[in-house]
Amino acid sequence: MKSLYDGRSIGISAAVYTAGAGFLAGVCNGMIGCGGGVIIVYALSRLYENDPERTSRDVFASAVAAILPMSLVSTLLYTASGVADSGAVKYIVPAVTGGIVGAYFLDKINQTFLRRLFGLLVMWAGVSLILRRAGIM
Fold first, then answer.
1. ∠ at Cα 86 (85, 91), nearest 5°?
2. Does this model's pTM top 0.85?
3. Distance, CA of 41 to CA of 130 (rounded, Å)
4. Contact call for residues 43 and 36 (beta carbons, < 8 A)
C-alpha cells in the first residue's frame, strides 16, 4: 500500500493505524475543537520512530497539513449550526502570522528542543485545564 505522504510503501497494519489515528483526531477536533494535532503528532512519531529518513520536522509538518482540512470542516459545521463565535475572527491574522513565523523557524530549531517544547505545551495545557476545573487557576 502506498503512503498518502510520499508514495513509499507502508504495511496494512500501518495503514489501519494511520486511518484510526486520523479518525480519532477528527473526532477530537470536531467534538472539542482541539487535540487532533496532538493525536496526529503522537501517531506519526510512533509510526516513523525507526525511519531514519523521517524527522520531528516531518511529523510536525504532516500534522499541520492534516489539521488545516480538519479545522476547516469543523469550522464550517460549527458555523452552520450557529455555535461558532464571530469574535474568534480577531485571532485569524495573528494565528496566520504566527503560523508563517513558526514554519520559517521549523527548519532552524533543534529537533530535540522542538520535541521537548511540544511535550511541555501539551503538559501545560493538560495541567491548566485540570487546575481551572478545580477552581485553582
1. 95
2. no
3. 22
4. no
Provide the grid cell at 59. Answer: 511529523
Which DSSP letter does residue 10 get? -
Predicted confidence at residue 25, as pLDDT, reads: 92
3-state secondary structure 79-130: HHHCCCCHHHHHHHHHHHHHHHHHHHHHCCCCHHHHHHHHHHHHHHHHHHHH
8 Å CB contact between 8 and 2: yes
C-alpha cell at 58: 516531518
Phi, psi at 82, each rounded to 5°: 85, 10
Q: How far apart are CA 74 and CA 72, in angstroms?
A: 5
> What number of helices (H) and strands (E) belong to the chain?
5, 0
Rounded Cα–Cα distance for residues 110 and 107 (Å):
8
pLDDT means over runs of 10, the chain (137 residues):
52 86 90 85 88 86 88 85 79 88 88 89 90 88
* Cell numbers placing 34: 482541539
